[in-house]
């Protein structure tokens, strides 16, 4: 790969190549920041324009949009408590409280640096070890995936602020919402009540935008509205000082590893990675007590992980020609349209092109820094608008974004209903994070469990036997669930003696 | 004064009405024509229609744009279009499964009589394949192994009722061993191909372009004749699969809601034929390994209705 580097660089360092990188990343950040337009939609929107471009610029444009949009989702999550993409939902938990405290610029600074480090590390891993890691990922069958997702579900426990019971109820509601629609194994309709629109299930994005953006707007409208009030005080991105990082490096490293690892595995995605990483940070960070009230570690955990997924998802895509998610599927389709057969021979047959793609991907992650600062400069005056305007703007953008994804008016009904429902739940003190986690993990949990049962001929007993990876993950799950109880007991004993 | 106003407005109305009717008769596309893709942007179907749209626009002499309406294996878009007025400005691209299988296995608001078929565009042969390293060199080896150890081998699919599922069912049912293999559905072709590479499943059926993405060995192809690219692989009929199972065909075509004005229908159908024959679209199809198969409105209507009934056998065999 290294011996093709000069040739690869000569592809990137042309006017077209650089223009594609800069404009693509910038556009990606803006699209990602718009509520509703997630990475998949952003990449699919741009794809038709790549048909007239050369091979390398076409793929680089899509990669730039991809990486940019994952970062862009954090901008709206922090500034207006509306995740631009589902994978930035976990960034809201600490990002928005920081913004409310008047530290919006610094919150975005943490998100920017964490995103870049996550993206750069994942790019380096992709360049150095893609074939090896892709081969390892093949060990992850349905049973291993089930064990991993089950472990992910335990993070409901750690993100349930206030009442544990209410958190678990919200999580169960989320899991139930994921059950509505066609059965993934038999195809039968479930809980559709004769409404054929429900056959497709609830759209994740419509529900996420509903319970975050619409619920937030309702919460604010129900309080006293002051026309001179601002939603957040934001003047531009403020990068964290070097010494502020002390005590946070461990969270960063762990989050990057979690994001990258989950990205490489089939069947999961950036939203799962961000939630698991956030939950792990909340469990183990030295600053865990402040989580949920504007703790930078929460932002770092979520943003480092979701950007580390990007390079991870490209590992099976580039090494095996098998798409890791919907975004990489669009990329493979684009390769095909440019006359390149994606597959196991992709890297060996096209070394120069792959070299250009990998180097370009690294560069994209580096130019996120200046471009992120630039987007901050542009967003600042918009955020100085009175709160009432902002709230109307959020509703408008959410509506357009949600409609755009599937072109289905029914999704708007889902968004508004989820918003009202979320408002009622939040008024009663139910946290929204577990609901979204349940809905994100639910479909994977179900299909992997049922696939596993087909493989073991319906035997739950045979599930973990003969699957060492699943067994280890299962044991970690039990420890994660038991730890809080054990700690509490120890604390009580300590107090007694 | 009032009289004169009445006369002029009468005259104006007559003139306007005359202009409107002549305009409708002469130049049909007075506004852009919308092609609805029932799946997400970026997928195989979406690509095909985005490649087709410019050629179709040129042949039609008007503007054409593509929109996506995903969900419910394509039934959300089809159900929504079925209820619209047949004005010819909104056409859906339905595959064989959306048009003939889904309405017979799900409670959707459309059926055989909901459409004015316009034209068929593509028909990609489905291939049943296994891993290149597998001990099964031919379809006979596979059938023998399955018979020796019933219940041991699995075939995957991209989802229940999907073409990948039906093709594998057609093959194993046609060879009389469907009860001896197990079905493992995935969500999309990506995870299923990954499971093939990992050896979790032994058989999978998809189009040639997907099969070429990995190290796989074709066993049987659903086509009337052997493929040029794989002359040694037998067709379904040669492998001993009988019709109608052997005639499985992943076709797709344009549909308008039923009762479309026959004049507009023929105009659209003709433009579709020109577009399919255009150099531009032919080159596109070659790049994407798509097999084109144009049928005009009348023959597509007959074909579609026969398929709708023939596929009942397949649906029953798949247990859907």
Automatic annotation (TrEMBL), chain A:
Assigned keywords, A-Z: Membrane, Transmembrane, Transmembrane helix
Chain segments annotated as transmembrane: 20-46, 58-80, 107-129, 136-159, 165-186, 198-219, 257-278, 320-340, 352-376, 388-404, 410-425, 432-449, 461-483
Boundaries of every DUF112 domain copy: 18-437
InterPro entries: DUF112_TM (IPR002823)
Pfam families tied to this protein: TctA
Source superkingdom: Bacteria
Isomerase in keyword set: no
Protein name, entry field: DUF112 domain-containing protein
From TrEMBL, chain B:
Entry keyword Signal: yes
Pfam families the record matches: TctC (PF03401)
InterPro entries membership: BUG (IPR005064), Bug_dom1 (IPR042100)
Keyword Signal: yes
Domain of life of the source: Bacteria
Record's keyword terms, sorted: Signal
Signal sequence segment: 1-25
Family, per entry: Belongs to the UPF0065 (bug) family.
Protein name (Swiss-Prot/TrEMBL): Tripartite tricarboxylate transporter substrate binding protein
């Amino acid at each position: 790969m290294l011996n093709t580097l000069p040739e690869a660089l000569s592809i990137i360092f042309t006017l077209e190549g650089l223009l594609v990188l800069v404009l693509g990343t910038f556009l990606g950040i803006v699209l990602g920041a718009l509520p509703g337009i997630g990475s998949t939609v952003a990449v699919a929107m741009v794809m038709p324009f790549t048909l007239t471009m050369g091979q390398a610029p076409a793929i680089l444009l899509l990669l730039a949009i991809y990486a940019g949009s994952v970062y862009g989702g954090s901008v709206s999550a922090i500034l207006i408590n509306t995740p631009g993409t589902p994978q930035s939902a976990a960034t809201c938990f600490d990002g928005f409280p920081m913004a409310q405290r008047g530290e919006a610029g610094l919150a975005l600074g943490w998100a920017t640096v964490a995103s870049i480090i996550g993206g750069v590390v994942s790019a380096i891993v992709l360049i150095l070890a893609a074939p090896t890691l892709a081969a390892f990922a093949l060990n992850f069958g349905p049973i291993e995936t089930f064990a991993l997702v089950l472990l992910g579900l335990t993070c409901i426990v750690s993100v349930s602020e206030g009442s544990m019971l209410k958190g678990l109820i919200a999580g169960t509601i989320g899991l139930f919402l994921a059950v509505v629609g066609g059965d993934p194994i038999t195809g039968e309709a479930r809980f559709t009540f004769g409404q054929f629109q429900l056959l497709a299930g609830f759209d994740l994005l419509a529900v996420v935008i509903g319970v975050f953006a619409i619920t937030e707007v309702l919460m604010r409208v129900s309080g006293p509205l002051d026309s001179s009030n601002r939603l957040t005080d934001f003047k531009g991105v403020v990068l964290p000082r070097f010494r502020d990082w002390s005590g946070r490096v461990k969270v960063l490293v762990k989050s990057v590893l979690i994001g990258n690892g989950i990205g490489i595995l089939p069947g999961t995605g950036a939203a799962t990675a961000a939630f698991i990483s956030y939950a792990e940070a909340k469990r183990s960070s030295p600053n865990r007590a402040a989580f949920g009230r504007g703790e930078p570690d929460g932002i770092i955990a979520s943003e480092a992980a979701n950007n580390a997924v990007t390079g991870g998802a490209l590992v099976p895509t580039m090494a095996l020609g098998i798409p890791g998610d919907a975004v990489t599927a669009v990329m493979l389709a684009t390769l095909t349209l440019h006359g390149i057969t994606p597959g196991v021979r992709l890297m060996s047959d096209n070394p120069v092109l792959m070299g250009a793609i990998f180097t370009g991907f690294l560069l994209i992650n580096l130019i996120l820094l200046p471009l992120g600062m630039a987007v901050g400069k542009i967003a600042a005056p918009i955020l100085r608008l009175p709160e009432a305007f902002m709230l109307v703007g959020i509703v408008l953008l959410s509506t357009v974004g949600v409609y755009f994804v599937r072109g289905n008016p029914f999704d708007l009904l889902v968004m508004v209903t989820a918003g009202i429902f979320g408002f009622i739940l939040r008024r009663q003190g139910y946290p929204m994070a577990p609901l979204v986690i349940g809905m994100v993990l639910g479909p994977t949990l179900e299909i992997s469990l049922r696939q596993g049962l087909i493989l073991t001929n319906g035997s739950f007993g045979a599930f973990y036997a003969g699957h060492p990876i699943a067994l280890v993950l299962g044991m970690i799950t039990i420890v994660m669930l038991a730890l809080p109880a054990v700690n509490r007991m120890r604390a009580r004993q300590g107090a007694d003696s | 004064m009032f009289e004169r106003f009445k006369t002029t407005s009468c005259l104006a109305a007559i003139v306007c009405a005359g202009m409107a009717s002549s305009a409708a008769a002469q130049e049909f596309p007075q506004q852009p024509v919308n092609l609805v893709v029932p799946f997400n942007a970026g997928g195989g179907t979406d690509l095909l229609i985005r490649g087709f749209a410019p050629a179709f626009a040129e042949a039609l002499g008007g503007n054409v744009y593509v929109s996506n309406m995903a969900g419910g294996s394509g039934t959300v878009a089809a159900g929504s279009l079925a209820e619209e007025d047949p004005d010819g400005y909104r056409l859906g691209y339905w595959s064989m499964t959306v048009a003939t299988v889904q309405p017979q296995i799900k409670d959707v608001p459309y059926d055989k009589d909901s459409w004015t078929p316009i034209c068929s565009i593509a028909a990609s042969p489905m291939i049943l394949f296994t891993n290149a390293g597998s001990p099964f060199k031919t379809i006979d080896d596979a059938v023998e192994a399955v018979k020796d150890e019933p219940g041991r081998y699995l075939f995957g699919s991209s989802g229940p009722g999907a073409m990948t599922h039906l093709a594998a069912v057609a093959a194993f049912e046609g060879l009389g061993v469907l009860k001896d293999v197990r079905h493992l559905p995935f969500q999309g072709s990506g995870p299923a191909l990954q499971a093939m590479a990992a050896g979790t499943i032994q058989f999978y059926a998809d189009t040639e372009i997907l099969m070429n993405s990995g190290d796989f060995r074709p066993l049987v192809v659903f086509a009337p004749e052997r493929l040029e690219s794989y002359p040694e692989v037998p067709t379904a009929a040669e492998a001993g699969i009988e019709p109608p199972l052997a005639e499985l065909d992943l076709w797709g075509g344009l549909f308008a809601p039923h009762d479309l004005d026959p004049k507009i229908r023929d105009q659209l159908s003709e433009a579709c034929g020109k577009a399919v024959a255009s150099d531009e679209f032919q080159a596109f199809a070659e790049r994407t390994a798509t097999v084109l198969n144009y049928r005009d409105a009348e023959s597509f209507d007959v074909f579609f209705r026969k398929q709708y009934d023939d596929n009942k056998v397949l649906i029953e065999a798949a247990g859907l």
